[in-house]
Known about the structure:
The chain is an alpha/beta fold and 261 residues long.
Amino acid sequence: MSQSRDARWKALLELLVEQGRLDVEAAALALDVSAATIRRDFDQLAQQQMLVRTRGGAVVHGVSYELPLRYKTARRASEKQRIAQAVAELITAGEAVGLTGGTTTTEVARALAIRPDLASGTPALTVVTNALNIANELAIRPQFKIVVTGGVARPQSYELTGPLADGVLGQITMDTAVLGVNGFDVTHGAAAHHEDEAGINRLLCERAERVVVAADSTKLGTRAFARICTTDQVDTLVTDTGISEEMTALFTDAGVEVIAV
Length: 261
């Protein structure tokens, strides 16, 4: 099966991030293409500093251990789209909504953009985000008022982070904050891999009346480096049906409404 180069690159980078190193033959077998094609792909990706070429293969680039958002493809895509749809349905026309960066929240933005009842209004929705890609996608919709935080862009996630964002977030309030997370555990709360992203996400939580965590079930019961907020600060968890009954009970007992789709 021949794949477009872009799809092949995404698949290669995902394999590489999972395994740390790949040899040409194994990659060719996994993607069902010739070794020559993989060599050429590796060379071109090395030029972009997405990986480091080795003899007979490639290893993860030192600074690209976190896959850039544009290369996080359809991993768990159907779950993320279902979650996004359910999150979008929780939002009422006219609300001010905070969206953090990430693949799931990007899908939430897309689900909101196509909701028929949000096709007009002054504004139909106010969206506050620190994610450049979300702002970019929604800015073309005149019925949405888009507020972007300040900050320094992280190339992997398109998120603006750092103290420049605090000035904007300190002056506004929101109805709902939708968080994308790297881990959400009943005991340890919601967390991100990077303390700067966690800091911005924490501010979004504090400025919102309601906090919704949008996370597929693989992120539940797991911890990440930097805490965003405690579990009792989260009102609703929207996840997929992969969540166990035990996990659902734990979150429910902690006061979190669980929506599994």
